[in-house]
Fold this protein.
Amino acid sequence: MLIASTKQVHDSGERLIDYLDDARADGMIILDGGLDSDVVQMLENAPQSDRILFACEWVDGANFTSVRCENRHGTRTAVNHLFELGHRKIAHVTGPEGNILSSTRKDAFTAEVAKLKLAPNPEWIISGDFSLTAGCKAAQAWIAMKDRPTAVFCASDQLAMGFIAELSRHNIKVPHDVSVMGFDDIDLAEQFIPPLTTIKQDRLVIGETAAELLMTRIMAPDETHAKQAAVLPVSLVVRESTAAP
């Protein structure tokens, strides 16, 4: 098993496909959905393209097998959880610009808010990048708002944790003053203070599924393997960071 950073490979002038061309690897699982279009085209045209899979992230329109979770359904579930608690002013802290998970969750958030007939406010869509630091900056933006949302759905748990930590520095209590939830259910989510309400995606199952699909292709190289998208379920985990407004 080889592990490499797509950024390091690109910057060195080496091509991802070189791992397959010189037989260093029999197949490839890619976690980066933000590859340049010329790299994606090169991978699609490679003779070994049926042994190239994407996991967690994916490239829209590209012809690869992928393993991902129900990002849209998870986001809708999050919004409805907050709505059912009584929240009508809900903000969203996004992931990084150009990331497929960010755009998918943001689009689903916007659609669900519209479906619930909640008044949209562009100020309540706050840019982030999945990090603790971005969560802190998002909290500062929330604090500065004249019309503050009563609930905030963050595109990742780390964003939510950074958000809550910055609020704590300003003596703003979660969920008493504002409800906050994340996406992922990372290990720290249950131990965080307060324990984080989130959408759970099973990262272990994502990895196992991708590995099984890849090994099937490697062990039967002469068979035709259909390109497919394996979409795995997510679930709502309610803890102590959300409550009625």
